[in-house]
Amino acid sequence: MTVRIATWNINSVTARLPKLLEWLESAKPDVLCLQELKCAADAFPYEEVRALGYETAAHGTGRWNGVAIVSRLGLDDVVRDLPGQPGYLADDALLPAVEPRAIAATCGPVRVWSVYVPNGREVDHAHYRYKLEWLEALRKACAEDAAGPRPFAVLGDFNIAPGDEDVYDVAAFEGLTHVTPAERAALEALGEVGLHDVVPRPLKYDHPFTYWDYRQLAFPKNRGMRIDLTYANKPFADAVGDSYVDREARKGKGTSDHAPVVVDLDL
């Protein structure tokens, strides 16, 4: 049995709906983890996706953030938010808000989390500390599933490049988030519970990127980053037959600034 699992920061499911439907029809994933929905859960295009044979579990509250899992293998044991997930106290808020950044479900033989890790903004910003706290909550939330016999993975936009080779020019990121030792250490800590990076197979370039800024011809120049990641336990990793970044989905007008990452499992 081959199971195709993918992750994609869609950067507004409403704005990219034609691209999403087109990609579901062409790539035919069995499970798709989406991030940055930018819509409330009740505004997700359930019917359009259902017409293609997919169920959806969505978690969103408005114009920012939001995650979903789209599956044609079923959606069981859905969990929204990480247990103990920290909230972020914005400058204009009275209380920390628990943002819709994580959703889990069992889809046939696999269990997945779709996550949208906080950006961090700047190293000396409160959002950076929030990011590190959020990643620690993620590590704790995954421990039980990661240690189990069932294929399990956390997929999504981690807003961290695991290594220097995962950015087009590490010197351009000096002093910025996404590449700091603390962020990378938080990723490595996922290994403590048995989760490890599934690196996509290079196709056109030696180092596969997943995100390119809209500005300054970043995509044609391949000035990108690999920040859309799959962290998997051993049963999941052992079943990987192929993994790649679908750069074609990043081309053209009206696209997300991220490309889907596809992982094929032989189960």
TrEMBL record:
Q: What are its GO biological-process terms?
A: DNA repair
Q: Which UniProt keywords apply?
A: Hydrolase, Magnesium, Manganese, Metal-binding
Which top-level group of life is the source organism from?
Bacteria
Q: Which cofactor does it need?
A: Mg(2+); Mn(2+)
Q: How is the cofactor bound?
A: Probably binds two magnesium or manganese ions per subunit.
Site annotation (Important for catalytic activity) points to D228
Which residues are in the Endonuclease/exonuclease/phosphatase domain?
A: 6-258
Q: Which SUPFAM superfamilies match?
A: DNase I-like
Q: Which Gene Ontology terms cover its molecular function?
A: DNA binding; double-stranded DNA 3'-5' DNA exonuclease activity; endonuclease activity; metal ion binding
Give me the residues that bind Mg(2+), please.
N9, E36, D157, N159, D257, H258
Q: Which PROSITE patterns match?
A: AP_NUCLEASE_F1_1, AP_NUCLEASE_F1_4
Residue positions of the active site: Y116, D157 (proton donor/acceptor), H258 (proton acceptor)
Q: Does the keyword 4Fe-4S apply?
A: no
Which InterPro entries is this protein grouped with? Answer: AP_endonuc_1, AP_endonuclease_F1_BS, Endo/exonu/phosph_ase_sf, Endo/exonuclease/phosphatase, ExoIII-like
Where exactly is the site Transition state stabilizer? N159
Q: Which chain positions lie within coiled-coil regions?
A: none
Q: Where are the transmembrane segments?
A: none
Q: Which Pfam families did the record assign?
A: Exo_endo_phos (PF03372)
**What EC number(s) is this enzyme filed under?**
3.1.11.2
| Site feature: Interaction with DNA substrate | H258
Of which family is this protein a member? Belongs to the DNA repair enzymes AP/ExoA family.
**What protein name is recorded for this chain?**
Exodeoxyribonuclease III
Q: Which organism is it from?
A: Streptomyces kaniharaensis
Q: Which gene encodes it?
A: xth
